[in-house]
TrEMBL record:
<feature type="repeat" description="TPR">
    <location>
        <begin position="230"/>
        <end position="263"/>
    </location>
</feature>
<protein>
    <recommendedName>
        <fullName>Kinesin light chain</fullName>
    </recommendedName>
</protein>
<dbReference type="GO" id="GO:0005737">
    <property type="term" value="C:cytoplasm"/>
</dbReference>
<feature type="region of interest" description="Disordered">
    <location>
        <begin position="477"/>
        <end position="509"/>
    </location>
</feature>
<feature type="compositionally biased region" description="Basic and acidic residues">
    <location>
        <begin position="486"/>
        <end position="509"/>
    </location>
</feature>
<keyword id="KW-0505">Motor protein</keyword>
<keyword id="KW-0206">Cytoskeleton</keyword>
<keyword id="KW-0802">TPR repeat</keyword>
<dbReference type="Pfam" id="PF13424">
    <property type="entry name" value="TPR_12"/>
</dbReference>
<dbReference type="InterPro" id="IPR015792">
    <property type="entry name" value="Kinesin_light_repeat"/>
</dbReference>
<comment type="similarity">
    <text>Belongs to the kinesin light chain family.</text>
</comment>
<keyword id="KW-0963">Cytoplasm</keyword>
<dbReference type="InterPro" id="IPR002151">
    <property type="entry name" value="Kinesin_light"/>
</dbReference>
<dbReference type="GO" id="GO:0005874">
    <property type="term" value="C:microtubule"/>
</dbReference>
<feature type="repeat" description="TPR">
    <location>
        <begin position="356"/>
        <end position="389"/>
    </location>
</feature>
<keyword id="KW-0677">Repeat</keyword>
<comment type="subunit">
    <text>Oligomeric complex composed of two heavy chains and two light chains.</text>
</comment>
Length: 509
């Protein structure tokens, strides 16, 4: 039944109600007339009463229909109102679902970001813990009982730490750094030795004026573009470098490089030495991109002059790897270190200190990439080789320190009091003063164990490293005293050509 039909029914019902109302009035009049008449007709009265009842019934039903229609209208209005509310609620529900979906996406992104930041924080904390164990090159050069290398030593990764602990360059390093591949002329030997001696003692107030006076005299007698001038420029640059005057040192090295290229040729070993010194200097100032091409050119010269399998080439590869590592070029870093390892092992043997140092450097590269397993393997290899070199082949009774540390980690809750340091003998002597790289490896592997939650193993290695460091410092002091005496003896013993040739042979041995 449509809305229009309902309205027609109600309209007709109201018309009927009006008609019934009129009939009711008429029947009331008839009833009054019949009751007042002289002749009382019961039959007529009965008929009128029945009609009145039917009329009343009809009126009541009509009123019910009208009221029902009104009620239906109210219900319909309420229904429309509810539909409108439902529609609005559905729209709000859709909007809220969209907002919830967007909020969930933001929450997931935030959780991922927090998780990533937590991992980065843990990695940075770990790197900070191992950073203090980086090799300090000054001590390595004084401690290693290896051949004196004419290539400048590797510069440390943590430049801030190095600058805060700067110490003078030892005498033999000054000579090697400045004059690799170029024999000092007789007229400069005495002055050269004096400058090196004062600089190695930290007496820069004497060394610098001596260098400047020598430069002035050389330029007057031989001109600026002379190899001897370049030699003094190199020495003065290294003095400035020890004083952290990197800008002045760089200017002097660039001047020396120009002179040596012009007078000795672009492929002379002395040019390579100057290029390397300049690259190291730029590295100390954080200018790794500027240092890298200089280091590569020095490498090319050494390969051409000495051959691609010469140990000096391996030393240059180490420097180049460090420059690339500071630029996060890890593929190149691994390539350079592995090539350096091949050269050292082939030419000097697996027991050479440079092998352990390069393995340690490669492990540090793996650490920076989060490759902890690879780094751990290399650290263990360094310690294993050192142990075999000191105590012989490994067996059940002769274990390397890392294996002992791991066993103590496994048994720490059993017989900790019955596993004293002495159970692995005098292992700390295997990391004595002639192998600071092993001491550094002990610290690095200890930090790695600590990162993995192996605290007993970490304590074992760090305790061993502390014992070794104490012995090393004592011998460093002795070696410095002996080194000064030997240099003075060489200075006083004369400057004959035979003596200098023999000295050069020992330097390049």
């Amino acid at each position: 039944m449509t809305q229009m039909a309902q309205e027609e029914i109600v309209s007709n019902t109201k018309t009927v109600m009006q008609g019934l109302e009129a009939l009711r009035v008429e029947h009331m009049t008839l009833m009054n007339n019949l009751s007042e008449g002289s002749k009382n007709d019961p039959d007529k009265m009965e008929i009128v009463k029945r009609n009145m009842e039917n009329i009343e019934l009809g009126l009541s039903e009509a009123q019910v229909i009208v009221m029902l229609f009104a009620h239906l209208q109210n219900i319909e209005a309420e229904k429309q109102k509810l539909r409108t509310q439902v529609k609005r609620l559905c729209q709000e529900n859709v909007w809220l679902r969209d907002e919830l979906a967007i909020t969930q996406q933001k929450l997931q992104a935030s959780e991922q970001s927090v998780a990533q930041l937590e991992e980065e924080k843990k990695h940075l904390e770990f790197m900070a813990s191992v950073k203090k164990y980086d090799e300090i090159q000054e001590n390595e050069d004084n401690l290693e009982k290896s051949r004196t290398d004419p290539v400048v030593e590797l510069f440390p990764e943590d430049e801030t730490e190095e600058r805060n602990n700067m110490s003078p360059t030892p005498p033999n390093q000054f000579a090697n750094h400045a004059n690799a591949g170029y024999e000092i002329p007789a007229r400069l030997r005495t002055l050269h030795n004096l400058v090196i001696q004062y600089a190695s003692q930290g007496r820069y107030e004497v060394a610098v004026p001596l260098c400047k006076q020598a430069l002035e005299d050389l330029e007057k007698t031989s001109g600026h573009d002379h190899p001897d001038v370049a030699t003094m420029l190199n020495i003065l640059a290294l003095v400035y470098r020890d004083q952290n005057k990197y800008k002045e040192a760089a200017n002097l090295l660039n001047d020396a490089l120009t002179i040596r290229e012009k007078t000795l040729g672009e492929n002379h070993p002395a040019v390579a030495a100057t290029l390397n010194n300049l690259a190291v200097l730029y590295g100390k100032r954080g200018k790794y991109k500027d240092a890298e091409p200089l280091c590569k050119r020095a490498l090319e010269i050494r390969e051409n002059v000495l051959g691609k399998s010469h140990p000096d080439v391996a030393k240059q590869l180490n420097n180049l790897a460090l420059l690339c590592q500071n630029q996060a070029k890890y593929e190149e870093v691994e390539m350079y270190y592995k090539r350096a390892l091949e050269i050292y092992e082939m030419k000097l043997g697996g027991d050479d200190p440079n092998v352990a140092k390069t393995l340690n450097n490669l492990a540090s590269c793996y650490l920076k990439q989060g490759k902890y397993k690879e780094a751990e393997m290399l650290y263990k290899e360094v310690l294993t080789r050192a142990h075999e070199r000191e105590f012989g082949a490994i067996n059940g009774e002769n274990k390397p320190i890392w294996q002992v540390a791991e066993e103590r980690e496994e048994n720490k809750l059993k017989n900790r009091e019955n596993t004293p340091y002495g159970e692995y003998g005098g292992w700390h002597k295997a990391a004595k003063v002639d192998s600071p790289t092993v001491t550094t490896t002990l610290k690095n592997l200890g930090a790695l164990y600590r990162r993995q939650g192996k605290y007993e193993a970490a304590d074992t290695l760090e305790d061993c490293a502390l014992r070794s460091k104490k012995e090393a410092l004592d011998l460093v002091k002795q070696s410095k005293v002996l080194g000064v005496t030997d240099d003075n003896k060489r200075q006083k013993s004369g400057n004959s050509k035979e003596d200098n040739e023999d000295h050069n042979k020992r330097v390049h041995k």
